[in-house]
Amino acid sequence: MSETGAIWKDPDRSFDERAQDLVSRMTLAEKVSQMVYDAPAIPRLGIPAYNWWNEALHGVARAGVATVFPQAIGLAASFDPDLVEQVAGVISDEARAKHHEAARRGDRGIYKGLTFWSPNINLFRDPRWGRGHETYGEDPFLTSRLGVAFCRGLQGDDPVYLKAAACAKHYAVHSGPEADRHHFNAEVSIKDMEESYLPAFEACVREAGVEAVMGAYNRVNGEPCCASPTLLTDILRGRWGFRGHVVSDCGAIADIHKHHRATSDAAESAALAVKNGCDLNCGSVFHALLVALERGLIGEDEIDRACHRLMRTRLRLGMFDPPERVRWAGIPYEVNDSAPHHALALEAARRTVVLLKNDGLLPLNPAEIKTITVIGPNADSLDALLGNYNGTPSEYYTVLRGVRAVCPDARVLYAPGCSLAGPVAESAWGERDTSGFAEAMAAADRADAVIVCLGLDAHLEGEEGAQGNGGDKTDIALPRIQQRLLEAVVSTGKPVILVNLTGSAVDMRYADERCAAILQGWYPGQYGGMAIAETIFGQNCPSGRLPVTFYRDESQLPPFEDYSMEGRTYRFFRGEPLYPFGYGLSYTRFEYEGASLSPDTVAAGEDTSLTVTVSNAGSCAGRETVQVYIRDMEATVRTPIHSLIAVGSVWLAPGASRTLIFSVPARAMAVVRDDGSRVVEPGEIRVYAGGQQPDERSAALTGSRSALCTLTVTGAPYSLS
C-alpha cells in the first residue's frame, strides 16, 4: 500500500483513525513484532525501533544522571497529592529531555522511551513485602489520590499529546510473597477486591486517564492476571472504560504455561493473553502469536486490536509528528538534573521526614553543639538514599554529609559501627561481627548528642532476587547486629537520636523506650541527608505522616500468604500498634476548631462538606497535614474501623489560622457489600478531622484528638454500583 497521503501521517486526523490506517499497512509479522517491548523498526513504513520499557518510580531511572526524589513510600508520607504531581511533572520534563536527545543521536534502546512503568499502586498490605517501598502505602484512598496525581504529572496537561505515558501496576492484588509471585494464586473475596485492592486502579483509569496498565505475575482467584477475563475484560475495559494498552509484567506471559499451568505452551499463553486484553509483552512469548494464528487459537482481528492500541499510544506521544506540533518536544536537555529540580528534590525530602518520638531534645541548637557523633551503617550510605528503580544523582547528601553541612562549626565524629546486615553468605538477620562497636561507643562518649542511622536498603527489602526471603523480609526486626549496636550506643548514657532509613515498618519498641528522639527517613532521595539534618537542627519543621502502620512485631500480623484484609492495615487491625498510620509529630502545635458539616443531614446518595479551622498554637511556623476520616456506626456489613476520605496541607505561622473545606461525597459514605456493590445506607456516620487518625493510640502519642462531627443519612439505601 502506498504511503502517499497516508492517514496515519496526518496530525490533523484523530489518533484512532491514524492508528487504524497504520496497522492496516503492516504485515502480520510486522504487527506481531510491535507487540513485544523491544519493538523493531519497520523501515518501509518509516517506523523507528522503539523500546517500551522505561522506569520513573521516583525519577527517571536507569538512564544515567537524573534528579532522584524520595522513594514512593517517602512521597506518600507527605500526604500531599499536589507535591506528588509537581514531582511527576519534573520527572516527565527530564524524561522528554533525555528521550529526544537520545533519539537525535540514534539511541532508541531500553530506558530511553516515553512509556514509563510507574506508578506502583499496589496496596502495601503487609510490612514483610519487599516491594512495599515502591508503593504509596496501605490505604486505598491515599494511594488513589497520589496515584492519580503522579499519572497527571507524568502525562501532562496538553489537550492533544501526552507528555509521557504512565502505567498503573501491578494489576491486581499483587503484594508478595516475592518468592512465589510466578505461581501464586491470590484468593480474595469480591468485597476485599472492591473495598481495598481495586480503588486505586479505578481512580487512575477514570480520573487520570492513565495510558497503560501492567498485569501482575500472580493469579487472582485462579485466573492469571495478564490473561484474566475478569480483570482485563470485565472490569478494566468493561466497567471502567479503559482505552489505553495493557502490558505484561516481565516474564509473566511465560509464567502462564510454565508456572501457573493454565496453558500447555507459549502459543496458547500468548493467545489467551491477547484475547483477554493484554497488548504488549515484556518478554518474547508474543512472537508465538504467529503459531497461535496458524493453530486457530486467535484471530488476526484480535492481533489488530492490540496493535492498534499500541500504535495509538505512540501517536499520542507525538512520536511520528513534526516536533513543532508537539509541545513537549521542545523541552531542552539542560532541564535534566537542573538546579530547580534539585530544589524540589530537597523540599520533597523535607516533607517526607516523620518525627516518631521527641522527648524534648529536638530540635538541636547548632550554636550549642560542639561535638556531634554520627553512627551506623546507613549514616553515609548512598544506597540508603536511593531505594530501587532509581537514577544516578550527580550529587547527594547522606545524613553524615548533611550534618556536616548544617553544622559547619561543630566537630562531627563518624563511626559506621557495623555493616548493614553482614556478608551475603550469612543469614541476613543473624548475629554479626561487633568489632566496630568500641569505636562507635568511644565516639558517642565524646559527643554532645549522638545520631544513630540504622535500617535497610533495597538489597535487603526489594524485588525477587534481593537478599532475604526472595526480596521479602522474614520478620520486621532490624538486622540483629544493628539492634546490638543501638543497645551499645544507648548504654553510653548519651542522648540518642535514631534515624531509621527503611522503606517499611520495622520493630521499634526498644528505640521507643530508650532513644530520646526517632525520625523515620525512608529512602529519601539524593538530598535526603540534608533534609534529615535540617530537621534535627530545627531548619525544617517535620510534617510527614506514616502511610503505613508500624506494628509492634510480626505476631500482630496475619499469615503473609493470606490476602483477606481482616486484621490488616489500620482499617481492619484491632490491636494496638506502636505507631499508627497517619501519625507524626511536629515542633509546633495545631488546634482544630469550628468543625461542622453542611448539611449535617442528607438523603442517601447526596454529598455534604466539612468545614474546619486549623490554627498554629505553637511557637514556630510549620505545616499541618490534615486528615479526614469517616466511620459508619450502623452498617449492615463489615466495614473498616474508620477510613481516610480526604487530606489537606496547610502552612501556618505561629498564631495564624486557616479555614478549610473538604468534600464528603456520597461515595465516601458507601459500604461495600459482599457482592462488591457500593451502597449508601441510612444511619449515623461520624466524620473526624485532625492531624492523625481518630484512634486511642494516636491520641495518646500526640496528646490531641480529632474534631468530631455527626452526619445523619436518611431514606432508602442508595446504590452507587
Gist?
This protein has 721 residues and is α/β, with parallel strands linked by helices. It has 22 helices and 25 strands.
Protein described:
The protein is α/β, with parallel strands linked by helices and 721 residues long. Among the domains are: 339-572, 3-Layer(aba) Sandwich (Rossmann fold), CATH 3.40.50; 590-719, Immunoglobulins (Immunoglobulin-like), CATH 2.60.40.10. It is 28% helix and 18% strand. Strands 9-14-13-12-10-11 form a six-stranded mixed beta sheet, sandwiched between helices. Mean pLDDT is 96; it is low at 423-430.
What's the β-strand tally?
25
Q: What is the oligomeric state here?
A: single chain
Q: pLDDT under 50 segments (min length 5)? A: 423-430
Given helix and strand content, the structural type is: alpha/beta
CATH class of the domain at 339-572: Alpha Beta
- Report mean pLDDT, rounded to a whole number: 96
What percentage of amino acids are in beta strands?
15-25%
**Architecture of the domain at 339-572, CATH level 2?**
3-Layer(aba) Sandwich
Radius of gyration: 26 Å
Q: Largest sheet at a glance?
A: 6 strands, mixed
Query: How does the overall form come out from the CA principal axes?
Result: globular
Beginning-to-end CA distance, first to last residue: 47 Å
- CATH superfamily annotation of the domain at 339-572: Glycoside hydrolase family 3 C-terminal domain
* Percent of residues in helices: 25-40%
Fold-level CATH name of the domain at 339-572: Rossmann fold
Question: What's the number of helices?
Answer: 22
Q: Main sheet: which strands, in order across?
A: 9-14-13-12-10-11
